Task: inverse folding
């Protein structure tokens, strides 16, 4: 007995809505902050920082969820979860883009000189920027046509970058957090655990395939 692919596919529209709703909610709250009243102000004294934080945290959580789904889909019962892995991964990229655009457009108004100095001089910005850049080829190669052109083995190797992306993103969050670092440490621990499981399961597969 295993989780049905049909059930997972039927849940896709609900999962899509659950994943996109936070961006709509925080977008409305940002507009609301500037005087158009919708659902009340929830962004605090510094709305741009809050917006960046919310988008950034959401992207990191979805990256971790993508890793978790990848690991679970290797287990027979959860194999059907691979049907939603790409959607979760693309939503992670969507929130990273929102996080990055908030930083470039709203926080620094396209001041490229200042942004470049920020990337070079501030380690947490450096880690975040590298993480974003590495995520781009993963999003681009999620298209079915490119998967076929690259071949599954090359595609799989490229998508192993997700673990580096996750580690860099969690370090970005850890260095950014000034007070209680419990949450970024939990994320980092989960990522390392999932990475260990991935490496361990690959070694097991290699062992059984050669014995």
Result:
């Amino acid at each position: 007995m295993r989780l049905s692919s049909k059930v997972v596919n039927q849940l896709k529209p609900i999962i899509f809505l659950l994943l996109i709703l936070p961006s709509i909610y925080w977008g409305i709250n940002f507009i609301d902050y500037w005087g158009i009243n919708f659902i009340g102000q929830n962004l605090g004294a510094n709305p741009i920082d809050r917006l960046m934080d919310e988008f950034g945290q959401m992207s990191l959580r979805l990256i971790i969820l993508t890793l978790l789904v990848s690991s679970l889909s290797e287990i027979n019962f959860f194999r059907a979860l691979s049907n939603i892995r790409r959607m979760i991964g693309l939503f992670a990229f969507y929130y990273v883009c929102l996080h990055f655009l908030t930083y470039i457009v709203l926080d620094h108004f396209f001041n490229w000189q200042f942004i470049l100095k920020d990337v070079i001089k501030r380690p947490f910005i450096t880690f975040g920027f590298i993480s974003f850049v590495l995520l781009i080829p993963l999003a681009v190669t999620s298209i079915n046509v490119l998967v076929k052109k690259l071949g599954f083995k090359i595609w799989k190797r490229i998508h192993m970058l997700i673990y580096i992306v996750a580690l860099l993103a969690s370090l970005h969050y850890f260095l950014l957090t000034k007070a209680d670092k419990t949450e970024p440490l939990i994320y980092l621990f989960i990522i390392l655990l999932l990475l260990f499981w991935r490496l361990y399961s690959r070694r097991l597969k290699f062992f059984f395939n050669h014995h």
In short: The longest helix spans residues 5-33. The chain has a mean pLDDT of 87. The two ends are 28 Å apart (CA to CA).
